[in-house]
C-alpha cells in the first residue's frame, strides 16, 4: 500500500501542470499574505455630479507582494475564490473598510459611505448576514453608511435566495448596489423585485459616451430608469470632462472614475477629502 501511494504521487506530480504548481505557490503565499497583513485597501471617491462633493468611497483591495510588487484584484481574487481564501480575505476587507470610515468620522469629516465588493462565493454563504452585523456592532458603525456591491450574475444565480439575503441586509440598514450594471442578464422586471438602492453603470458604456449612439442611448435609459424607480445611478469609469458633461446634462446623480481620482491609499485619500471640503 505504501508503494502504491508513492506511485500515485509520482503519477500526480509528473502530470501536474506548471500552471497548477504556480497556482499552488500563489495560494500559499496568499495565505501568508493574510497572516502578514500584506493586503491593503485603496479608496476611490464617489462624487455628487451636481456639486463635486465626495459622498462616499469604494474600497478596492490590493496585494503588496514582497517580490511581485503591488498586485491588482484581478491577479488574485479569482484564486482566492477558487481556494476559499476569499472568505477570510473578504472579512478582512469589510472590517478594514469600516474601520477606515470610523477613523474619518473621528477626524470630524462629513459622514462618508463605504462600498465593499462582495464575491459570488461570499454572497451565497449563510454567515454573510451574521458576520456583517457583528463587524458593524463591534465597530459601533452606522449601518446606513455601508453599501454592498453585487453583480447581476450574482443576483440571477438564485433570485429567490438573493431577495432573501438582500432583505436581511436591508433590514439592518445596509444599502445595496448593483455593480457593472448593463452587461449582465437581469431584465427590468427582475430588477423591480430586488430591494436595490444604487445602480452603477458599467464602465464599458461610459467609455464611448458621448459619441457612440448606442452607448449614449443605453446610458440615458439607465439614468431614466433609476429616476423612475427611485434608485441612485452612479456612472463608473468617468475619465474625461466630456463624459462628465454628458452625465451632468442628463442629471446622472453620481460619478466615479479617474477624472476625479484614481483609487488611493487611505492616507492620500484623506488629503483629498480635506481638499474636497474647501469651496
Ligand atoms: P469594480 O468593482 O468594477 O471596480 C472598479 C474598477 O475600475 C477598479 O479596478 C478601479 O480601479 C477601476 N477604475 C476606476 N475608475 C476608472 C476609470 O476611470 N477608468 C478605468 N479604466 N478604470 C477605472 P480594480 O481596483 O483593479 O478592481 C477590479 C475588480 O476587482 C473590481 O471591479 C471588483 O470586481 C474586484 N475587487 C476589488 N476589490 C475587491 C474586494 O475587496 N473584494 C472582491 N470580492 N472583489 C474586489
Ligand atoms: Ca465595485
Ligand atoms: Ca464596477
Ligand atoms: Ca462601446
From TrEMBL:
Give coiled-coil spans as residue ranges: none
According to the UniProt entry, where is the signal peptide? none
Which residue numbers delimit the EAL domain?
23-277
Q: Which domain of life is it from?
A: Bacteria
List the protein's name: EAL domain-containing protein
Q: Please name the source species.
A: Noviherbaspirillum sedimenti
- Report which part of the complete sequence is shown: 634 to 912 of 924
Amino acid at each position: 500500500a505504501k508503494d502504491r501511494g508513492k506511485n500515485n504521487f509520482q503519477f500526480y506530480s509528473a502530470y501536474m501542470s506548471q500552471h497548477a504548481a504556480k497556482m499552488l505557490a500563489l495560494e500559499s503565499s496568499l495565505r501568508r499574505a493574510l497572516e502578514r497583513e500584506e493586503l491593503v485597501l485603496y479608496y476611490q471617491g464617489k462624487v455628487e455630479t451636481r456639486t463635486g462633493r465626495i459622498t462616499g468611497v469604494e474600497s478596492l483591495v490590493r496585494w503588496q507582494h514582497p517580490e511581485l510588487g503591488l498586485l491588482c484584484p484581478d491577479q488574485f481574487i479569482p484564486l482566492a475564490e477558487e481556494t476559499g481564501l476569499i472568505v477570510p480575505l473578504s472579512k478582512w476587507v469589510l472590517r478594514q473598510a469600516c474601520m477606515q470610515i470610523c477613523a474619518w468620522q473621528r477626524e470630524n469629516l462629513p459622514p462618508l459611505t463605504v462600498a465593499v465588493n462582495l464575491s459570488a462565493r461570499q454572497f451565497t454563504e449563510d454567515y454573510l448576514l451574521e458576520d456583517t452585523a457583528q463587524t458593524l456592532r463591534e465597530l459601533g458603525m452606522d449601518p446606513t453608511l455601508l453599501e454592498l456591491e453585487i453583480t447581476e450574475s450574482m443576483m440571477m444565480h438564485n433570485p429567490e435566495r438573493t431577495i432573501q439575503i438582500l432583505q436581511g441586509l436591508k433590514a439592518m440598514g445596509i444599502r445595496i448596489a448593483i455593480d457593472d450594471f448593463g452587461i449582465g442578464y437581469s431584465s427590468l422586471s427582475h430588477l423591480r423585485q430586488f430591494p436595490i438602492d444604487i445602480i452603477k453603470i458599467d464602465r464599458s458604456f461610459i467609455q464611448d459616451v458621448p459619441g457612440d449612439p448606442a452607448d449614449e442611448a443605453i446610458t440615458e435609459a439607465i439614468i431614466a430608469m433609476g429616476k423612475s424607480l427611485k434608485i441612485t445611478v452612479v456612472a463608473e469609469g468617468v475619465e474625461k470632462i466630456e463624459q462628465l458633461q454628458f452625465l451632468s446634462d442628463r442629471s446622472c446623480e453620481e460619478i466615479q472614475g479617474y477624472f476625479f481620482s484614481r483609487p488611493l491609499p487611505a492616507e492620500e485619500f484623506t488629503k483629498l477629502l480635506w481638499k474636497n471640503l474647501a469651496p
